[in-house]
Amino acid sequence: MAIIEFVANDLCLDLVNTEIVEHGQPVDLLLSYEHLLDWLAEANLISSSNLKILKKWKNSEEANDVFAQAKTLRASYHQLAEDLIEGKTPSPSLIKQINTLMAQDSMYPQLKQSVDRYQIDFVREIKQPIDLMPVLAALPIDLLTQKDLDLVRKCGNPACVRYFYDSTKNHKRRWCSMDGCGNLMKVQRFRQKNKT
Fold it and tell me: Which listed residue, 6, 67, 138, 178, has the most CB atoms within 10 A of its CB?
């Protein structure tokens, strides 16, 4: 199985990028509830203590239901990425879906003292699989409210299906990653150039 990479500069797009193409074949990197938990932990969206609690639910009906809902939400985010690239606005049904899931969130503010002042930390109670849905629903919020939607891109490698947010200074990024697709496309151009 391929390694999950966070190359999109946006976690919503990174979730979409858990569906890739390898050797011309589609590959789903989220094959189970446990893979979803591992992705959330790698993305720093759940704590190690939350991870430990949630792993106890594996093979439960609740975990399987949440996993299915998460994959459906990922498909909606894939459509969102396509819509943004085409200059379309997000669908009202997606916004409604996000808001409905966010209304179930258990997050609350906590006042904490730092060295010389106070600050607000947000705490999220995650005790069962369904508590993950507001976490996943929140993924596109930063993209939709804080970022320039014209900078959502699809990798320039025709064989790649990954998306990214172009945060480069000149906004000319073409590849999901220079180490992968960028180098591959440069090698292909070099070989094509030297054939003639």
Answer: 67
The DSSP element (H or E) to which 22 belongs, if any, is strand 19-22
Q: Are 28 and 19 in contact (CB under 8 A)?
A: yes
Tens digits of residue pLDDT in 83-99: 999 999 999 999 999 99
Give residue-wise pLDDT tens across range 104-162. Answer: 998 899 999 988 899 998 888 899 999 999 999 999 999 999 999 999 999 988 888 99
- Domains of the chain plus CATH, in order, are 11-195 (1.10.3300.10)
| Other beta carbons less than 10 A from residue 44's beta carbon | 9
**Contact 63/33 with Cβ under 8 angstroms?**
yes
Place of tokens 């009906």: 61
